[in-house]
Amino acid sequence: MIRLFDVLFALTGLIAGFPVLLVITLIGLFDTGSPIFRQERVGRSGRPFTLLKFRTMRPDTASVASHLADTSAITPLGRFLRRTKLDELPQLWNVLRGEMSLVGPRPCLFSQAELIDERTKRGVLAARPGITGLAQLNDIDMSTPRLLAETDARMLGNISIRNYFHYILMTVLGKGSGDRIKD
């Protein structure tokens, strides 16, 4: 049932949000010259997939977890996109393709061995990664791998249609600050 909602919402979001996607893409061309960010991430069952986002950092920025990135790498447009969470919109394509869900554990990088290990121990990697979830709503990011994996496991153990809609609604209403960037 959740997969059906994922597909319906992703398709609706991509169609209805097309003008916004187009405008951000055009502005992004002027901001960084490369508005779409692609990065290999850990997907369901530990398989790799290419995550899509709007680029929020300069193209020459090292490919590291957000909490390890330098604040000076974020562009002015990127600050706005991160604050409003609009940088996540292209991930609706990942949801439509079945690589992600709207709700699930945020996909990590393959270089985040400690987080992958913690998630493996708790069965978190058996689920599709998501755009939002319990950890994001509670400002828990990848800088605390064990807490994040525990929170992800708790969310997956209690997932229901009601919780699914609750997490999406809270995200749309602006709860959670998104990925932290070191100062």
Mean pLDDT: 91
Show unreliable segments.
none
Strand content: 5-15%
| Computed Rg | 15 Å
Overall helicity: 40-55%
Q: What is the total tally of β strands?
A: 4
Q: Characterize the overall form.
A: globular
- Report how far the terminal alpha carbons are from each other: 41 Å
SS class: mainly alpha
Main beta-sheet annotation: 2 strands, antiparallel
Contiguous helical run count:
8
Task: Give the spatial strand order of the biggest sheet.
Answer: 1-2
SSE pattern: HHEEHHEHEHHH
Give an overview of the whole structure.
- It is a single chain.
- With 183 residues, the protein is mainly alpha-helical.
- It has 8 helices and 4 strands.
- The protein has helices at residues 2-16, 18-31, 76-84, 91-96, 113-121, 134-137, 145-157, 161-172, and strands spanning 36-42, 48-54, 101-103, 130-132.
- The strands form 2 sheets. Strands 1-2 form a two-stranded antiparallel ribbon. A two-stranded parallel sheet has the order 3-4.
- Strand 1 (36-42) and strand 2 (48-54) form a beta hairpin.
- The longest helix has 15 residues, at 2-16.
Write the layout of secondary structure elements.
Layout: H1 2-16, H2 18-31, E1 36-42, E2 48-54, H3 76-84, H4 91-96, E3 101-103, H5 113-121, E4 130-132, H6 134-137, H7 145-157, H8 161-172
Helix pairs in contact: 5-7
